[in-house]
Amino acid sequence: MSGKIFLSTAYLPPAEYFARIKDASEVLVESEENYHKQSYRNRCYIMTAGGTQFLTVPVYMGSLHKTRIRDIRIDYSKRWQTIHSRALRTAYNSSPYFLYYSEALDKIILKDHKYLLDLNMALLSEILNILKIRAEPVYTTEYLPVSSIEGDYRYSIDPKKESRYVQREYFQVFNSLHGYVTGLSIIDLIFNIGPEAVKYL
Q1: Distances (CA, A) of 18 to 93, 136, 191
Q2: Do the Cβ atoms of 172 and 191 come closer than 8 Å?
Q3: Which of 99, 156, 167, 179 is deepest in the core (most CB within 10 A)?
Q4: d(Cα 198, Cα 186) in Å, to the nearest integer?
Q5: Residue 125 neighbours by CB under 8 Å, 6+ apart
Q6: Residues 163-186: pLDDT tens digits?
Q7: Closest of 10, 29, 15, 14 to residue 151, by C-alpha
């Protein structure tokens, strides 16, 4: 068991995110930073028959000023919920545990959350429940600079950075087409492995 950790908010993030939570005594999710584009904050990666695909939650970015992550609102002018729901079904409908977990996750995705933080926290809570990880993440109340705190994973778990986390291999639906692929959303692990998923973190 490690101590306190800091994470960015994330939309269906990869297994590493949950591996850090699993071993932590306290989990703080950053709510005071400025929004970062093209990150796990509003993007996840899934595996399809055609290869890796990313799903993005569209957000309002503000105008000329930087916007704090807690103020980032979801843009419902685009049909992203339907797109994500269908993409997950197409990609994972044949996975062993899709029917066990998809309904609860789909219900959260299809609900109109005003803020990105709210959507991400709802999904995080449900996934922790699925994994049976007893953790109660809370939001930060002030922004602490990078490298000023221990257990800081806010910017190291990032799709644009190579991860040092070693993912234990597991069965994936499209292994025969693409081989084993790392860095996918935690839902890839959950839908394929089910109750055993936490043992692969």
Answers
A1: 23, 12, 15
A2: no
A3: 167
A4: 10
A5: 137
A6: 889 989 999 999 888 889 999 999
A7: 29
pTM of the prediction?
A: 0.95
Cα–chain-centroid distance for residue 165? 15
- Model pLDDT for residues 104-145, shown as the tens digit of each residue: 999 999 999 999 999 999 999 999 999 999 999 999 999 998
| Interval 44-80: pLDDT, tens | 999 999 999 999 999 997 654 688 999 999 999 989 9
The CA distances from residue 15 to 21, 96, 125, in Å, are 10, 18, 15
Q: How confident is the model at residue 1 (pLDDT cuts 50, 70, 90)?
A: low
The closest alpha carbon to 125, from 5, 1, 3, 10, belongs to 10
* φ, ψ for residue 54, nearest 5 deg: -105, 145
Q: Look up residue 3 and give its amino acid.
A: G
> 13: closest CA among 173, 154, 199?
154
